[in-house]
């Protein structure tokens, strides 16, 4: 008969191993906030006072959730306090029962949790130095009078219940500059931006998702808008439902919705800041945006189903995974990566061409026939190449050519050919890939007036106003609302001079 032998892990060694899971500072904070949302919080505050000494610096993540009594707090501080296969409430963003501890201790050596419930304050702490000394899982239960965090306790008491998670002794914070406070403030700034994207649907108060507010040292964290829903030029497709499970129905469906961003030239700097994280390009952020119970888990990339291309860079596909299908998706402890099951991957692949169609059309310049025929530039795209030529049949050139002699027309044709041959296409591509939008705003009115004035002489217009407007508006440059208004204004000025 086999001998049974209990072999618990070494406390210090396991703690150090768990610290190496690969959490970023931002992802660790987000993991703690998952617990706040699961606790029914509607307000979350990140508090970090001015730093006098790096050893006493701290970050407090405080919420107005339901709080914990002594026994609930002790259980919450236990590693793997919940079974990942256990059924959870719809607003519970946890999975393994590890997040609070592993996320926190990946960034600091001391985790302190202060909780208020039914008027009572309860405090517990994991201190890695204490675990090292005792060589055991020694949880510290503190009295509220002996803690130096009286200000945090006062903040908590503004609410009827709530919890504050405090990180202290940041031994893993990289300070390349050598100035701890400068580096720490930069981490907090990046964290605020990360939270504004990961929890944007909670911050917006989207239907069926609980609204929450977040602050960093009193400054509200505003939601990102990765699909630029606020723009009239942004296009949303009808949702696709992918059903899975033993008894599939629509409530157990993965909901897939494609979003096509506005053309790059129409994106303002404000739009670009709203869409995603600083330093990332449209190309890097194209692809699937996977949400678990409204919380963004994964964004950017096509899960290996297609290449990242310029043609699809305006496409972002929202994928909502319902709580009932949690166990089908491979979710890592950090909740920063989710791998769909094979049946979902297969369906996504089948729909991919349809999902990216809007972006491909916008990127390849597909327009109606009249615009293509009359535009000043003529473009074509093949399977492996593309071409850009001046459209010699455009109405604008035809009007101009009729006033020239045969010799002048010959010279004009040679000049147009030279313009085509010397178009700095590589340089243009480099700017476009870097998400720089072309701009012709400088002296725009003067330039448009110069174009229109060529159709006027001392006796008045050479062609009718309607013909001139029609000729200009077939060019995409003049189809934007502000350009149309400007053309109309210039025409009125010329008529009334």
The share of residues in extended strands comes to 15-25%
- Report the end-to-end length measured between terminal Cα atoms: 108 Å
**SS content category:** alpha+beta
Biggest sheet: strand arrangement: 5-4-3-6-2-1-7-8
**Rg from Cα:** 30 Å
Q: What is the average per-residue confidence, as pLDDT, rounded to a whole number?
A: 82
Number of strands: 20
Shape, principal axes of CA atoms: elongated
Give a short account of the largest sheet: 8 strands, mixed
- The helicity comes to 25-40%
Helix run count: 18
- The unreliable regions are 92-97, 367-371
Please provide a written account of the structure.
The protein has an eight-stranded mixed beta sheet, sandwiched between helices. Strands 9, 10, 11, 12, 13 and 14 form a six-stranded mixed beta sheet that branches. The chain has a two-stranded antiparallel sheet with strand order 15-16. It has 497 residues and is α+β, with helices and mostly antiparallel strands. Helix 2 packs antiparallel against helix 4, helix 2 crosses helix 7 and helix 16 packs across helix 18. 28% of the residues are buried. A hairpin with a 6-residue loop joins strand 15 and strand 16. Helix content is 36%, strand content 19%.
Jot down its keywords:
497 residues, alpha+beta, 8-stranded mixed sheet, 6-stranded mixed sheet, 19% strand, elongated
